[in-house]
Amino acid sequence: MTMTIHQPSKPPSEKDFPSILCLHGGGTSASIFAIQTGRLRRALASHFRFVFVDAPFFCPPGPGVLPFFQGMGPYRRWISDAGGDEEGRVLPLLRKTMAEDGGDFVGLLGFSQGARLAMGLLRDQQQQQQQQKGRADVLGEFEFGVLLCGTYPPLSLSSGLLLLPGGATPRTAQFETLHFDEEDEGVVGIPTVHVVGDRDPYVPKSRLLVRCSKRESRTVMEFDIRHNLPVKPADTQRLADRMVRLHRDQVEVQQQQQQQKKKKAKSMGKGGAKVEVRDVEVEA
To answer: 227 an active-site residue?
Structure first.
């Protein structure tokens, strides 16, 4: 199931707002994640649309899901118990969701296991951009990722599922002892925001996920929370403000690049005209 959240206070032109693809945690669902992000969505009501999608694999409810979300199943996850079927199920599902929605997707918002997937998608995008000279066709070209209480390691849909540093494999890896360094190929340079809970039992894994992002392009926000989104209004607003700033920064960069391209094209046009005149004069 796919959910697009329409804020009740929005004007009819809400579809024009940039979209954020929302990836729920393991053992939850799109509906549950929509509830969990209610405060954040209200703070961003005049800036973004939020599109939620259900993971394809069924599973028992995740830690802390019950009893609050009792009866809200089926519960889902992004990783198959059988293994090896993620690329064939998850990627087409996300592509279909985005295509049917038709929005301008600029960001990823992932919680827990969904944050692992978001980081893997950003890494896949970055790799394709490097290989294809600036273009990516994994899902699109996201401007940023917001990783809420993320766990580790990242889930890559084009790199054998688990994205690990130093050539480690899932069979040999002790995940808690492996971390990315700045020089590792897998480190993501696309802007990210990492929300870390000081009282989250998974905080060591959240800190490992932080190291999957380049220092200069990541923002780390630590809150007095467990394995959940920020609750205090000031904390929620701080996160919302950062997301808005990230998008505005990327819009400004794109505008500058467009202006540079126009100047270059104009300069080349003038230069071409002069060369043509000189050629004619020489031939005469």
So the answer is: yes
